Amino acid sequence: MDPYKYLNIGFNPDGSFTRNGQAKLIPAAPSGEPVAVTTADGPVRRIVHSNDVPLDDANGTSVRLFVPGLAAAPRTGRLPLIVYFHGGGYVLFRAASEPFHNNAAVLAASVPAAVASVDYRLAPEHRLPAAFDDAADAVRWVRSYAAGSPGRPIFIMGCHNGASIAFRAALAAVDEGLELRGLILNQAHHSGVERTAAEAASVDDRVLPLPANDLLWELALPMGADRDHEYCNPESMLAGIGAERLRRLPPCLVLGRKKDPPRDRQRVLVHALRKAGVAVEAQMDGAGYHAMELFKTNCAEEFNAQVTDFVRRHAGDCVDVYAARSRL
Fold first, then answer.
1. Taking the domain 3-325, which CATH number applies?
2. Does the first or last residue of the chain, that is N or C, have fewer Cβ atoms within 10 Å of its Cβ?
3. Percent of the chain beyond pLDDT 90?
4. What GO molecular-function term can you cite, just one (predicted)?
5. 48: number of CA atoms within 13 Å, CB side?
6. What is the secondary structure of 20-74 as a DSSP string?
């Protein structure tokens, strides 16, 4: 297969990079327009508001902030904040891409929570560690956002490659003394030079076939780096972090699917976190393939329920208020 054609991307004669047809296939959702969301715990349609907030003008980064309407807000006023990093292999999609926009809106209504979806820089125009640097900027933004509401429960979450960005953001947060209530890693995207069994079996994977996976890493990693680089291989990454730094992380929810090509790498991360003493809830046997929560309604409902349950349980003394509000 031609991975460029499969991903619908390519370089132009002038050296620029085009994500061909992405806007047509995955349209951008506008910010500022209220969205009515029907959550899984009842027939009530809740209104979610969104707006885009600059993160770093020089880098062109921003945060799309989703806030549920007053009917869903907790009486304490301390709505949890979920900092969210979308997927796309570091190369595709934005915070405004419809599947990720919709996912953030549903989470904002379901928990309920404020959801800050980070629009980080994409490769190959901005190779790694650009996205990790943008994650550190997002942590500093969170400090400012949370300063006006002491005690606000803060969570960091990422899907696919966004889970790997979220992991780096959580480390940056604890390094800076920002208290986190939890870290959510959904199908973290890792790889390595030596194929795992899951990767070797993914040549014709229906969502993330091996040639496309390899190309995404080739475009995302620093020039000349291979897939054993610390930005890609979790074993290399963990060796540079160390157990002492890992154990400062908050409770973690790690989600995986049975047919996800990176699943063996995800288990390496789970093992290292547990060995370091981090409280890890690993639910690695979800049905289906990579990113199924974006394509299948039943997978989306399962995913949103898992995240909602985790956030409510770790949000401290607000949890009973959220449970009561969910029945309104």
1. 3.40.50.1820
2. C
3. 79
4. hydrolase activity
5. 30
6. TTHHHHSPBPPSSS-EEEE-TT-SPEEEEEEEEEEEETTTTEEEEEEEE-GGGS-
Domain ranges of the chain: 3-325
* Cis before 129 (ω within 30): yes
C-alpha distances (whole Å) from 253 to each of 39, 68, 183, 230, 328 are 21, 23, 6, 22, 27
Give 44: exposed, middle or buried? Use CB within 10 Å, 0-12, 13-18, 19+: middle
Integer Cα distance of 91 and 97 in angstroms: 13
- Label residues 209-226 b or e (16+ Cβ within 10 Å = b): bbbbbebbbbbbbeeebe
Q: Where do the H-state alpha helices sit in 259-328? A: 263-276, 297-314, 319-325
Calpha distance 20→26 (Å, rounded): 11
3-state SS assignment for residue 159: strand
> Could you tell me the CA-to-CA distances from 264 to 170, 195, 200, 214 in Å, in that order?
22, 10, 11, 16
Region 157-167 average pLDDT: 98
| Residues pairing with 252 in the sheet | 183, 280
Residues in contact with 213: Cβ distance below 8 Å, sequence separation at least 6, in sequence order: 89, 191, 199, 202, 261
For residue 164, report the phi and psi dihedrals to the nearest 5 degrees.
Answer: -65, -35
Q: Which parts of 77-232 fold into alpha helices (H)?
A: 98-110, 130-147, 161-175, 197-200, 210-220
How does residue 318 score in pLDDT terms, banded at 50, 70 and 90?
low
